Amino acid sequence: PGWSPRVVPARGRKSRHDPPAKSKAGRLKLPPPVDPEELLVVLDRYRQHRLVLGALRAEFRAEVLQKKREEHLGGEDSAELLEEHRRLMAWNDEENARQRERREERLRKEAEEEKRRKLEVAEKQARKMEAFMKEKEKEVLQLQEEAKSFITPENLDARIEECLDNPRNYNFAIDKDGRVVKRTVLS
């Protein structure tokens, strides 16, 4: 009796797969009409507002930074701060130069390594192509040797005569060891 936790309540939103209600089936949702002249005026006023606020923020930011700079350098130890700043900038320049030299050295080594690797690949490819060509030459020579025993129209009559003079019998049985067990006689 009453509500139980296993029963899903029937009230709530529709899922996205439910069809629209019958009363809303033919309804087209249209955005509210906007007057084009009023839209242009509003967009222009928003643009001007953003420009003015951006300029004011930049002005205030510059003013605050100027005050901080004056407070920082306005003290009696401004000469020491300037000297420390100069010293730190010189150290920074030296460090940048050292890092640039290291980077150039690394890039040069990488370029040399890449060139060496490409050269090795090219040599390997050349050796592979040379081996391939030798193998193909062997095949061509072997085919030329085999072509000497081919039957051609010129030697066709001689080969036929040779086969008729030396008949062969292929009608035989062999055992598991490959020996001829039984052979029929040619008729």
Layout of strands and helices, then pairs:
Layout (H helix, E strand, L loop, with lengths): L35 H38 L4 H70 L8 H10 L6 E3 L5 E4 L4
Summarize the structure.
With 187 residues, the chain is mainly α. The protein is 63% helix and 4% strand. One of its GO terms (cellular component) is mitochondrial small ribosomal subunit.
Describe the 3D structure.
Pfam families: MRP-S26. The protein has a domain of 38 residues. Helices cover 63% and strands 4% of the residues. Strand 1 and strand 2 form a beta hairpin. The relative contact order is 0.02.
Give the uncertain stretches in residue-range form. Answer: none
**Strand order of the biggest β-sheet:** 1-2
Q: What's the β-strand tally?
A: 2
Largest sheet: 2 strands, antiparallel
H/E element string? HHHEE
In percent terms, what proportion of residues is strand?
under 5%
Helix count equals: 3
Radius of gyration: 49 Å
Please give the alpha-carbon distance between the first and last residues.
105 Å
Portion in helices = 55-70%
- Overall shape: it is elongated
The assigned structural class equals: mainly alpha
What integer is the average pLDDT? 89
Pfam families: MRP-S26
Protein name: Small ribosomal subunit protein mS26
Region (Disordered): 1-33, 90-117
Main location: mitochondrion
